[in-house]
Amino acid sequence: MAKPLYTPDEYDDLTKEVKKKGHLYKVSYQQEKKKKKAATAKSVFPKVLKVHCHKKDDCDRFAKMIGKRLSPETLEFEFKQSSKKNKNAAWIDERSNEVRFSKKERLAEKNQHRRETDLWTNTVSHQNDGYQHWQTFEITIPTFDDYLEFQVRINHTLSLTASYFTVEKPVSKVRYGWKSEWENHNPLYPIYIVSKGRADSRLTAKALDEMNVPYRVVIEPQDYAAYSCFFNDEQILILPFSNHGKGPGVARNWCKYHAKSEGYSRFWTMDDNIKFFARLHKQRKFKLLDGGMLRVIEEFVDRFKNVPLAGLQYRFFPAEKSPQPPFILNTRIYSCQLMSTEEKYVYRGRYNEDTIISLDVLKDGNCTMDFNIALIEKEATQKLGGGNTEEFYAGEGTLPKSLMLKVVYPEDTKLSEIFSRDHHSVNYKKYYVNEPSYIDGYDPEDNRAETDLFRFKKVRI
Length: 461
Description:
By secondary structure, the chain is of the alpha/beta class. The chain has helices at 15-44, 56-66, 103-108, 115-119, 144-154, 203-210, 224-227, 249-261, 292-301, 353-363, 387-396, 399-408, 448-451, and strands spanning 47-53, 76-78, 135-141, 164-166, 176-180, 191-194, 216-219, 236-238, 266-270, 274-281, 284-288, 309-314, 327-329, 336-340, 368-378, 413-418, 421-426, 456-460. It is globular and about 65 Å long.
């Protein structure tokens, strides 16, 4: 069993604060929810949604998703739940393929020139200028039930406020990946996969195994027998506690002190439901075939003295055919985090420990970096058994999770209901002004011996 570097008794699960103030926000939210429920359905529907396609293949893919024959004459139509899927669904058009932006138009495109792009120097190349929409459909969706059926058919979750959807080729059908062209390309900082009750799935471990990236699985004592069937003892770290009910932040803090005891200044902590890693580059998302991009991110983050927290964006957020910078400054970091081992920041909260620590960092005037150059594809929250699904959400629902964040950061958090689930939104815009600062004496020439080697090759898989 691992050393007691950190224990649940040291962890602030914030439940006392919620007991003191939570009921006030809860009552106010529930009253507001009742008032808005009927009004929202009336105001949102019928809903008009735009669907963007960047080439013929995307149009054909969309037609088959919804089961409808489409053409340039059917760019506006109504979608209903009762609409039967046409077996001969397709896009019928004899025109030429997609039209790309000219160089001049690229430079003028909104969001393309950002300070993140200016900071991204002396490292691997990143280009994602975007394409024009070759075809846009305007779809009227009469009711909420129709909207749910539409999402089922496109296999994508959309919020009630979503105004558009961009069709992309599924990564599972992509036949190319990115491979590092230099030796010693694995990350230097240790990777910890915090897992509970999911020895049967092991999604993140499988993804890292495919990339030949070393890691350790952090588990509670009662899970050892199950996990030892799939991992050797060098890959397993057994926590000196179990079933404490304070949330995954306790284990994450233990990982921090474990990494620090081994002499590391940073460490990776990953959720156990990551299916694969991908790179966004030149308007495409291709799988990463090794750990080289994780090392690229480590080297970049280490240039700055006030970036204690960084991570990888979810694959579905940045549209591949839209302009995207290499990373986004000063927002939340979820699921795959590169964290400093400095004492100042520790996880706290029974729920939302990742959001809370992101806000802790930003509130102090420091920075976070959410990378678009490397993305993660995750299994949907609460879809897998084990983890928080069994310990919290199955019995408690999601309101306590959102309520805790509202209590800790009331000015930044808004409670809301999305698809009959209590949820929350956080406003990070005011923190975008936080400026990353280079470490004292930083000179890019000092890192040339490594950064000049940062090259990736696209290979067929």
